[in-house]
Predict the structure of Cytochrome P450.
Amino acid sequence: MLINLVDQDTYAASGPPHEQLRWLREHDPVHQHPGEPGFWAVTRYDDVVHVSRNSELFSSARRLAIFDEVPEDQLALQQLMMLNQDPPEHTRRRSLVNRGFTPRTINALEEHIRTICDDLLDNCSGEVDFVTEVAAPLPLYVICELLGAPVADRDKIFNWSNRMIGADDPDYATSPEEGGAAAMEVYAYANQLAAQRKAAPRDDIVSKLIQPDENGQTLDENEFDLFVLLLVVAGNETTRNAASGGMLALFEHPEQWDRLAADPALARTAADEIVRWVSPVNLFRRTATSDVILGGQRIRENDKVVVFYGSANRDASVFTDPETFDIGRDPNPHIGFGGGGAHFCLGNHLAKLELRILFEQLAIRFPKLRQTGEARRLRSNFINGIKSLPVRLT
Ligand code: HEM
């Protein structure tokens, strides 16, 4: 079976190629991608977890781009980001930023997030685009709240994040130069924010992260600015697409929407099921640090090892009825936030809280919510995204 897992147009037309991924899980789980020597697609749950938890063999730091190599000038900057580091460099930074994202710190934000969500929904009525009016602003406003950024700066931050993501989609397409320029603007903005909080600390994450921890360790200025940059990229697009992909899944499974409308408390398990079902991050790359056997295949040093989260999340050896979207699924050991290694999503509690509040509020306020037009998908093999989803809020 000839399988192309990277064709952007396939993703734009119909989303991740689930049929082909299922075939691979069953017949060729560590798949040498045609026409891409040294590119391996890892599709089974256990193998994705193994790769994610074994950073000595599967590095996040050796080259980064999933398909092409990153030009030298961008490489240096990217390698300074936590996402692109291996232990021990990664460990120090991660433990410094973890303090801003503990379940306790995040749960304390619940009322703020509820207010942001209520305000957004108060301003929506009748026919709207769910993506632009609800799914996109919610995570953005929450990140602004975390950073203590003024309301007046929200549009600016939104625009930077869109330009940086620079998806391979003609509607968003930005040149690498434009994306780089936006990144520099976020970097400068973070610098300014840190200086303001140093002079006058507040009760926000910026103030927390620029203070030394209990061992007297702190992020230096450069590390802090890069972290803000990572937050703006990692926290926006992912949650936006979980929300819009979740909404679409509920439209496609109306009996699940009816369940939620009848019992909005189901939003708690629905949040996890949405992340499993949508898997907003399709894949991530690691690089083999030496020759290694994985799933019976001989991987060579420096080969690209690409883990497919959306495929792992439908692995029948782990999930009962994996092709069933069930908002009450419990337990739900999905790996939509990563396979549990050093890089496991820092924002997972936050994302789940946002999704729970959003879907609970939608079910309470708009039990007859309906889709009124076709969903348009993002042209990207990296993010499982939706660009527009017309709905009627009733
Ligand atoms: C890392 C998914 C929301 C911040 C990751 C990874 C995935 C992921 C797959 C990589 C895991 C790995 O390599 O093992 C998601 C999904 C989200 C989401 C599906 C929403 C549904 C967020 C939010 C934030 C965030 C809201 C922050 C506000 C990060 C950061 C990392 C990360 C900083 C890098 C962690 C590290 O390198 O140690 N996320 N994410 N994410 N995520 Fe998320």
Summary: The pocket of protoporphyrin IX containing FE is lined by residues 52, 82-83, 94, 143, 230-231, 234-235, 238-239, 242, 275, 280-281, 284, 309, 336-339, 341, 343-347, 350-351 (CB under 6 Å). The domain at 8-367+381-393 is CATH 1.10.630.10 (Cytochrome p450).
